[in-house]
Amino acid sequence: MDSLTPRLILASSSPRRKMLLQQIGLTFDVLVSNIDERLDHDLPPERIAEQLAFEKAQAVAASCSNALVLGADTIVVDERHILGKPADAADAYRMLAHLSGKTHQVITGLTLISTAHIPQKILMRHETTDVKFAMLTPRDIERYIETGEPLDKAGAYGIQGKGAMFVEWIHGCYNNVVGLPLYLLTRMLREMSFHFE
């Protein structure tokens, strides 16, 4: 990367997002934005995901020059109800029982902010994937919660981990369910004229 190319900054501490960026060979720095992730339930879920991604990117971009800041936020939506990270094991149980046997949506909002432009250049998009869960028994849910995996995941499961055994099928981008839709991201990077190949 030459000195004229802005550095890519991931505004997230998510190990899954870091892994996915590394998977496609991107070099980046991590600066975590500590925003208050309050949801505006008057907005449609797609806009909520985009807005949270924008707020994360904006908070980091405010202190960076010649950078391309990536903000991302993934939400799980069941019948228009947003399922965030569970507060505790009982909340995780409630979420997983609610998802059992049904199809839900995973939506990731992405924002890119270029601080190399004056005014800043901003791009916002989202990706949606349908996920069908198998019917879960109470013991299925209890055993999964005992692993600890659901407690820091939106919707109380991780498709890249043990939660994969509950997923009958998906329609759409798999990486979106993990937390970063790579195809959409690469299109956005090209739109921002960011050279990474």
TrEMBL record:
The alphabetized UniProt keywords are:
Cytoplasm, Hydrolase, Nucleotide metabolism
One GO process term, biological-process aspect: nucleotide metabolic process
Q: What class of enzyme is it?
A: hydrolase
Q: Where is the active site?
A: D73 (proton acceptor)
GO molecular function terms attached to this record:
dTTP diphosphatase activity; UTP diphosphatase activity
Return the protein name.
dTTP/UTP pyrophosphatase
* Organism in which the protein naturally occurs: Candidatus Moduliflexus flocculans
Name the Pfam families on file.
Maf
Q: Where is this site: Important for substrate specificity?
A: R16, T74, Q160
According to the UniProt entry, what is the EC number of this protein?
Answer: 3.6.1.9
Localization: Cytoplasm
* Cofactor entry: a divalent metal cation
Q: Sorted alphabetically, which PANTHER family does this protein's record hold? A: BIFUNCTIONAL DTTP/UTP PYROPHOSPHATASE/METHYLTRANSFERASE PROTEIN-RELATED, BIFUNCTIONAL DTTP_UTP PYROPHOSPHATASE_METHYLTRANSFERASE PROTEIN-RELATED
